[in-house]
Design a protein that fits this description.
The structure is a single chain. The chain is built from 17 helices and 21 strands. It has an 8-stranded parallel β-barrel with strand order 1-2-3-12-13-14-15-16, surrounded by 8 helices. The chain has a 6-stranded mixed β-sheet with strand order 6-5-9-8-7-11, covered by helices on one side. The protein has a 5-stranded mixed β-sheet with strand order 19-18-17-20-21, sandwiched between helices. The longest helix has 18 residues. The chain is of the alpha/beta class.
Length: 476
Amino acid sequence: MPHTKPRARQSKIVATLGPATSTYPEIRALFDAGVDMFRLNFSHGTHDDHRARYAIVRQIEKETGRPIAVLADLQGPKLRVGVFAKGAIDLVEGQSFRLDLDLAEGDEKRVHLPHPEIFAALKVGSALLCDDGKVRLRITKCGKDFAETIVEAGTKLSNRKGVNVPDVVLPLSPLTKKDRADLVVALDMGADWIALSFVQRAEDIKEAQALIGDKAALMAKLEKPAAIDNLLSILDLADGAMVARGDLGVEMPPEEVPAIQKRIVRECRRLGKPVIVATQMLESMISSPTPTRAEASDVATAVYDGADATMLSAETASGQYPVEAVTIMSRIAAQTQSDPAYRAGLEAQRQMLEHTTADAITAAAKLVANTIDAVAIVTYTTCGSTTLRAARERPHVPLLCLTSKMETARRLAISFGVHAVHTADAHDFTEMVEKAASIAKKYGLAQKGQHLVITAGVPFGTPGHTNVLRIVTIGE
């Protein structure tokens, strides 16, 4: 079977597929440049578009022997104003402006807002943000079918611009009719992860998981202030998280977003759950072959913080330089992780261990690997819990994950430092050692005389029982 060597870096890269990256050569070039997970953005494109791109990813996976993660990103509710008689209006700070359920075209005094659930949740003093925050309205009076506001900022508003309501929890499901149809398609294709937009509370995660079951892992997109208020209860239920800084930066003061990003990464690492930092990471590369220095620093900061992955959106979906964007992101991550301060920072954020055998074994594996200068930690896992514990410790050596379940290997492709290999279960200690040594040599992770540290659960193939640590010296 063909196989590709592990990446030279431990953090992973997510790339969004779109019009600029729809063919086999385009998607293969992204993979070769360093992509570990491909994102299918269901806000754009048709179901047939996504199916075709998914099929290409699986073809590349088969050709290279490397499990590749696929993320299906659901659009979620999109709140928008209606239309204006002239297509747009001019606003003056301090003027009154009304939003209501009247279907008539809007003017300088009012506009249709086709979302009664917003009116139901508004309070006097609440803010309404339109057009990604370019227009800010403050509620002075409201009822079940209207809101009177004062314009605090902004000079122009045009047809169907988006609306954000940062101050209240909206009585809205994160899953629209479109999302439910998209979810069926995504699960039928075989997507490994489902990204849930518009998450506000833990109940949103439960609603989605009831539909997904065990067919895919669920990633909570953290993009609303209410989600940050309920962060711990959301992360307890979700399988992973995405720091979606676009809407988060609209609904919260920009100066608060960096600290929130660090908090989310820290909490995800504590729980041993993958976390992706997303939005505008290399945005200038949509039209430029090189990033700004500020963008390079932004990517590096996410890596320094210990994020599992960084994500490219329009840079690869519709940009002019998709391969260059992946290449430079990979180079930034590799360079950052070679900095001694990077490792020191991760060690300073060491996680408290639970009083369990599994946590004790996992922590010991990292310590032993450091002490004997092992070249890799090998984890045998069925459901992924053994490998996720090891990734949480952020070891300095690669994590070679051996699993008998392809869906587990694919889901783990996004986790820090993990090189997942789909292989049959070991049946005894002798086979465990031989298989680990053979695969480590095959993938270029180990040579004769070097050491491996192996963790597994006995009985073999039993999920959630990490209770064995073994040191192996590679022979011929």
